Amino acid sequence: MATAGAIVRGLISPCCKIFDSPKHPEIGDISSQHNIITHALRISSRGLHFAAAHKNLRLKAHCNPLSHLFGEEVEDDVLREECGVVGIYGDPEAARLCYLALHALQHRGQEGAGIVTATEGVLHSITGVGLVADVFDESKLNQLPGSQAIGHVRYSTAGSSMLKNVQPFVAGYRFGSVGVAHNGNLVNYKTLRAMLEESGSIFNTSSDTEVVLHLIAISKARPFLQRLVDACGQLEGAYSMVFLTDDKLVAVRDPYGFRPLVMGRRANGAVVFASETCALDLIEAKYEREVNPGEVVVVDTEGISSLCLLPHQQRKACIFEHIYFSLPNSLVFGRSVYHSRYTFGQILAEEAPVECDVVIAVPDSGVVAALGYAARAKVPFQQGLIRSHYVGRTFIEPSQKIRDFGVKLKLAPVRAVLEGKRVVVVDDSIVRGTTSSKIVRLIKGAGAKEVHMRIASPPIIGSCYYGVDTPSREELISNRFSVEDTRIFIGADSLAFLPLEKLRDLLVEEAPTFCDACFSGNYAVPVRDDKVKRVGDFVDDGLNGRVASGWNTSSQGESQGSILKINSR
């Protein structure tokens, strides 16, 4: 009998490539399970049913209650990546490796984390609100047996983190069960959801990722991969996803390649997918290549298969991955993030020189660009601002008077570096401008003679609909003000941005075409819904457990989370 993979390979397109690889060992025996809730799935031909245990949700506000008084506005005045994904196949320590890889991707999402593993036809899932270290400990990892796993870290907005929206999602459908972790945003989410609800689908979350699972469930095809192809053919926008079934790991990327997804391999042959190469490095997986735009990569006991999913489109990789989101030690879209940021700083020094005594950075994302600026300007780089990494977030609304202390708690000026100096301060971007103005005041308050702000990206004039949490256009200061008016607003002696033309010239030399819609207003995929779901938006259906409200059903103060086991047979 032909395998599902073989069937799909015959159905897709002649551009498919098949790669052979050593077969992986069979999944080991299921380990002893403790405190795991077994959920019966009601499976019908109409669609899928999520496993959920509302009575067992454990949520709590676990941050320092004073931190939000000082830090909220600093955190809110930045662009945020929605999430990071990991997939591992063929390693007996899959859950622990996934846990470590998620640590490496923690910068991509700090408000929720989850891991799903598969063994003997059963998917095991643990998800929770908070950092990776908050959600998982040794006992939790022991409840995730199997040699294949997917993981996810998530960021949400509006001060509300809901356990039921934390991925990976696990659901059952007529022919089995599937887990999915998604990085991106679907611009036709509302249209698809309305269509599915009209046909009888019931949604359990407010995430666009659930749409994908419903589309898989209602597909008329029998093989899972063909169902996935059918589903992805209806999606518009950005998606880098990893799927886990009882016998295979699948990675897929949208035809434009908006969000990154890379592939690597460990010495024992285990295959690893991740949003950034820094995750591969941490678990000692050798980087092999990107998952190409429009590609489906299938890993199972037969090896690795590569399928062409959708018609080729001009690549539109997100430029902000190189400006802010990704770690400097990552290789993203085939290019070193460190090299990009260093070069951005050098170009800034050439395009916007100014007489100065010292160059400093707004840590941490502005450091590499500041090093490039200082090297090209032949001016010393010094650490003029010290960032505190121990200030968390809670959900207490502070008065504006108290909130104004926020920058001082997040960033401490070094008077010995700044006093009496003409200072160039390099940052990655300006969003609303409120934080920049406070940083300028902070530096001048430490005795700086002059403060010259240099931004290692062009002015942000448009919102992102492809997986980045951005304010509305009306809130973006560069959409409302000229550069000179922005300079006056933040109080700097001078202000300059990286020219968009220079950014394009630099990247065209060594990298594919990038999406610069937030700078240019030119969107590769039209926004079809009247109001596109913003990253982290949610629908309050009255069932959401919110950290914002301080809801805590855990009597023992345990780490918040949900544990479940799904039998796919």
Structure overview:
- The chain is α+β, with helices and mostly antiparallel strands and 569 residues long.
- It has 2 domains: 15-76 and 83-320, Glutamine Phosphoribosylpyrophosphate, subunit 1, domain 1; 336-510, Rossmann fold (3-Layer(aba) Sandwich), CATH 3.40.50.2020.
- The protein has 20 helices and 28 strands.
- The strands form 7 sheets. Strands 1-16-15-11-10-9-8-2 form an 8-stranded antiparallel β-sheet, covered by helices on one side. An 8-stranded antiparallel β-sheet has the order 14-12-13-4-7-5-6-28. A 4-stranded parallel β-sheet has the order 20-23-24-26, with helices on both faces.
- The longest helix is centred in the middle third of the chain and has 15 residues, at 337-351.
- The radius of gyration is 24 Å and the shape is elongated.
- It starts with a helix and ends with a strand.
- 54% of the residues are buried.
Outline:
The chain has 569 residues and is of the alpha+beta class. Helices cover 28% and strands 24% of the residues.
What distinguishing features does this structure have?
2 domains, Glutamine Phosphoribosylpyrophosphate, subunit 1, domain 1, alpha+beta, disordered N terminus, 8-stranded antiparallel beta sheet, 569 residues, single chain
State the total count of DSSP E strands. 28
- Provide the CATH top-level class of the largest domain: Alpha Beta
Largest sheet: 8 strands, antiparallel
| Helix content, binned percent | 25-40%
Contiguous helical run count: 20
**Which sequence of strands runs across the widest sheet?**
1-16-15-11-10-9-8-2
Assembly annotation: single chain
Would you identify the CATH H-level superfamily of the largest domain? Aminohydrolase, N-terminal nucleophile (Ntn) domain
The total tally of domains equals: 2
> pLDDT under 50 segments (min length 5)?
1-47, 49-75, 393-398, 530-559
Which strand-content bin applies to the residues?
A: 15-25%
* Content-based structural category: alpha+beta
Distance between the termini: 19 Å
CATH topology of the largest domain: Glutamine Phosphoribosylpyrophosphate, subunit 1, domain 1
Named at the architecture level, the CATH assignment of the largest domain is 4-Layer Sandwich
Radius of gyration: 24 Å
What number is the mean pLDDT? 80
